[in-house]
Amino acid sequence: MNAPAMLPVLTLPITTRRLIIREYATADTLAVTENVCENLYWEHHATEPPSAAQISALILWAVQEQSIKPRINYYLAATRKDSGAVIGEAVLRITDPINRQGEIGFGVARKFWKQGFATEMGQVLLGAAFGQMKLHRVLAQCAPENKSSIRVMQKLGLAREGLLRDVAQARGKWWSTVVYSILEHEYAKISKVTKS
Ligand SMILES: CC(C)(COP(=O)(O)OP(=O)(O)OC[C@H]1O[C@@H](n2cnc3c(N)ncnc32)[C@H](O)[C@@H]1OP(=O)(O)O)[C@@H](O)C(=O)NCCC(=O)NCCS
Residue 106, class by beta-carbon neighbours within 10 Å (0-12 exposed, 13-18 middle, 19+ buried)? Predict the structure, then answer.
């Protein structure tokens, strides 16, 4: 992918009602490992649950990405404002800077599911994507069986684009992915409604 020499840089941390979305530090590795240790977390992923070494490598990669210029990967920690605990991950990738395309993703530790945290993270990510990063289209994707992730995408205002069938073979079966997206003018409309 050709990244232009200049890309906007996301200003962090970002504070929401209950969360602070910030850069990862290597000291977060244990918290992330604990957050994703349950098999249920990986139920709808076409990958085996990662080992401790793989999680360490992921956090190290996230930290290294912080100084890459131009920066296209924002793999961020979602922490609770009240306790400082890392409760999830918020991801923004600039997948095609020339055409202003991006992708968001989110994950929340099992004990915090169904409390609106992923939706709160997604709102931050969309605000960053269409605000500071000036993207035109943002997508999110997950397995079609991942009902809570689909619900989050819908709550964020993303529209279903379609089903990519059998895109990966893992854990003894074929995996499909459902793609949702939102365009900048659609986001402008819903963010105006939310603000008023
Ligand atoms: C998907 C995930 C991020 C959702 O996080 P969350 O903080 O629980 O999400 P929210 O609370 O903001 O919203 C979840 C919504 O899904 C709904 N939901 C949960 N389970 C559901 C199910 N089985 N069927 C239908 N809806 C479901 C909730 O009721 C809620 O909707 P509501 O607000 O209208 O009631 C979380 O389950 C997770 O981290 N899973 C593992 C990683 C993952 O799959 N990440 C996303 C795909 S890459």
Answer: buried
Where exactly are the structural domains of the chain?
14-195
Query: How many angstroms is it from 111 CA to the middle of ligand 1?
Result: 12
- Ligand 1 centre distance from Cα of residue 114 (Å): 6
Beta carbons within 10 angstroms of residue 124's beta carbon: 21
Contact by Cβ (8 Å): 77, 89? yes
Rounded to two decimals, the pTM is 0.96
14-195, CATH topology level: Aminopeptidase (3.40.630)
Nearest to 142, CA basis, from 120, 174, 164, 114: 164
Range 14-46 burial, b when 16+ CB lie within 10 A, else e: beeeebbbbbbeeebbebbbebbbeeebbebbb
**CB-ligand 1 contact for 42 (6 Å cutoff):** no
CB atoms within 10 A of CB 108: 25
The shares of helix, strand and coil residues in the chain, as percent rounded to the nearest 5, are: 35, 30, 35
pLDDT tens-digit series, residues 79-128: 999 999 999 999 999 999 999 999 999 999 999 999 999 999 999 999 99
- What is residue 105's predicted lDDT score, i.e. its pLDDT? 98
